[in-house]
Amino acid sequence: MEQSELQPGDLLRVVLRRIWVVVLFFVVVVSVVAVGTFRAVPIYKSTAVLIIERPTSPNVGVEELLGSMSYFDSKKYYQTQYSLITGRSILSDLMGSIPFHAWPEFEGMADGEILSALEDSIEVEPRDASFLVDVSMTGRDPHEITRAVNRLVKIYMDHNNETTRQSIASGTNFLESEIPELQTKLETSFKNLTEFQENNNVLSDEENKGIILDEIKALRASLIQLEDRQDELHGRFESLMEAKQGGASPEVLAMILADVGVSRQVEKLREEKRLLEQDAMVIGARPSYVTSELASLHEQISGKDLAIGAEVEMAFRKLETELEETRRLVKVRKAREGQLYEASQILYRTLNEFKRLQDIYQRNYDLFDQFIQRHNELAAAKNAQPNNIRVEFPAEATMAPVRPRKALNLALAIVVGLLGGLLLAFFFEYLDDTIKGRDDVSRYLHLPPIGFVPAISNGRRVETGNRDLITFNSPQSIVSEAYRAIRTGIAFSGAGDERQVILITSASPREGKTTTAINIAVAMAQSGQKTLLVDTDLRRPRIHHTFELENSRGLTSVFINDFRLEEVIMPTEVENLYVLPCGPIPPNPSEILGSARMTEILDQLRSMFDRVVMDSPPTVAVTDASILGRLADSTIMVVSAHSTRKKVASQGKENLMNLGVNLSGVILNNMKSGRQGYSYSGYYYYGEYGSDAKDDAD
């Protein structure tokens, strides 16, 4: 089902509705805390303030001989000191000097139990960003715990002094046993270093190291150039050999030499030959040329060819010679490079070994020097009083207990009592799944509320007598006014037809439907309308008891014994109100109510009365109400506030709606004054205004 948005007023109404839960929980919590607080034995606390500084070099143990205290070592040191203060060794000494068996809180305890209790009662708390440490103890007697705290601090300081002296003595013995061996190691390492330096001429090697590196660098650059030249010459030589083996002419070989730039002389001869060939062509092209001149040119050309061949051969031999020389130089340079590399490796090994011996000597020297310095410090501090731990403020007795803190406990009890009571109230509200008011009617049943009836009580506003007739017996009461308001609501709703038959029902028994039907009928009769109240609850009829009528004849008599309606309808002491009792209870109520004869009877009653109000059985238990609802002009369902469960009410509504019953709305019965935000103060003052002197005197 849809849920409406929760409003602040809803929360207030929940609190008011469950105020007894809030008050009860508050009273219980505050009472329990108050009793416990004021009956509790007061506990006092005494605190001494120590200064625990980082130990100086002469006062530390052997483990500190080889270096200063790091952050993590410092943290470990302080944690150790805090543990020692509450350690069993110091607490055992404390028990030996203070008679804890006489303390009330330790009465009847064994030594081991007292020791465990002391561990729980002593607290060591360092102060941030300082060397200050609070050593506290709690107990019942402020003077006794003050004396115990100061004694504990004294035992701890004595223990620390003794431990420090033992550490100094142990360190001194250790140093005296180790120094001779360290001195021997130092002398041996110095001797090894000196001999190695003399035998290997280390100083000269240092100088040679730079010379060899420079030579290797220059040799590498030269070797790269030679290898490039070797590759170039080898390429030229291979080209000439290939052409020569292929039978190339000197002219072609000359061209190759010209292409690779081996010889400028070859290029010059080729140019001269070209010019001679041009002259021969010019002379040969003349009509009349001198044969001897042409022959001379050809002879010169042949000479050039021979010269080119000789020059090519000479250039080839020269190229071959240069290539061989280049190869030789490359081989020589590489051999030299290998020699230099091997020499550098030997030099590096020599220098590294020298460096290693130097490091060994330096470590031995530093360690020997530290041991000598520490031995001198310990010797000077052997009889000195350690001063890294001292008392800044001794413990003093305080008469203000730390437990119980009465004001704080009561304040917390009040807060917890209020909050817990509110939470418990909302929890009970969550568990309560009953219909409570107008919002629940609209939210869960989706029906309009026709009216609200306050819970009937025996207060001064309700006269004694039959409560079913409260509208007649106490017309000035707020309950009677509520029924008159419901009568008005019916008149102004769709259910207010002048010839309307109204069915009053409920989802389950004990919701007040019969009382509601009776009082609505009385209110209608009091308005001047001729009204008939019909008891159609053929299973458990009750209306005849209210009006003190005989039930020997009634509605069932019309069906069974063929009585006429005029014979079974009875007048009442209420003007304009008549009652049609149930009559003898039949074995088949549903068949009677669903018969065509019932329809005829209702049509006849419409012609006889202005209003016909029918009381029927609950809808969830039997189907009688659903059958009658189809015959009635309007059906109204009564719901008892804070009694009818939401699921039951919804089921009752569904049973009616599924059979096509015209369900006009809901009357919310047994409303408690002030709940759900509805107040009946208006009815109350109306009754005050209309009451007579006798009412006021009651």
Short description:
With 698 residues, the protein is an alpha/beta fold. It contains 24 helices and twelve strands.
What is the overall pLDDT average?
79
State the helicity in percent bands: 55-70%
Strand content: 5-15%
Adjacency order of strands in the biggest sheet: 5-12-11-6-10-7-9-8
Task: Specify Rg, calculated over alpha carbons.
Answer: 63 Å
Number of strands: 12
Low-confidence stretches: 57-68, 458-465, 674-698
Distance between the termini: 48 Å
What is the 3D form? flat
* Main β-sheet description: 8 strands, mixed
Quickly count the helices.
Answer: 24
Describe the protein's architecture and organization.
The chain is of the alpha/beta class. The strands form two sheets. The chain has an eight-stranded mixed sheet, sandwiched between helices. β11, α22 and β12 form a beta-alpha-beta unit. α2 runs antiparallel to α11. It is flat and about 180 Å long. The C terminus is likely disordered.
Q: What is this structure's SSE topology?
A:
Layout lengths: L7 H10 L1 H21 L4 E9 L18 H15 L2 H10 L13 H11 E5 L5 E8 L2 H59 L1 H44 L4 H11 L3 H21 L6 H91 L7 E5 L12 H26 L6 H8 L3 E6 L15 H4 L4 H14 L8 E7 L6 H14 L4 E5 L7 H4 L8 H6 L4 H4 L1 E2 L5 E4 L8 H5 L2 H13 L2 E5 L8 H8 L2 E7 L5 H13 L4 E9 L9 H10 L2 H5 L1
Parallel strand pairs: 5-12, 6-10, 6-11, 7-9, 7-10, 11-12
Antiparallel strand pairs: 1-3, 1-4, 2-3, 8-9
Helix pairs in contact: 2-11, 4-6, 6-10, 7-8, 7-10, 8-9, 8-10, 9-10, 14-15, 14-23
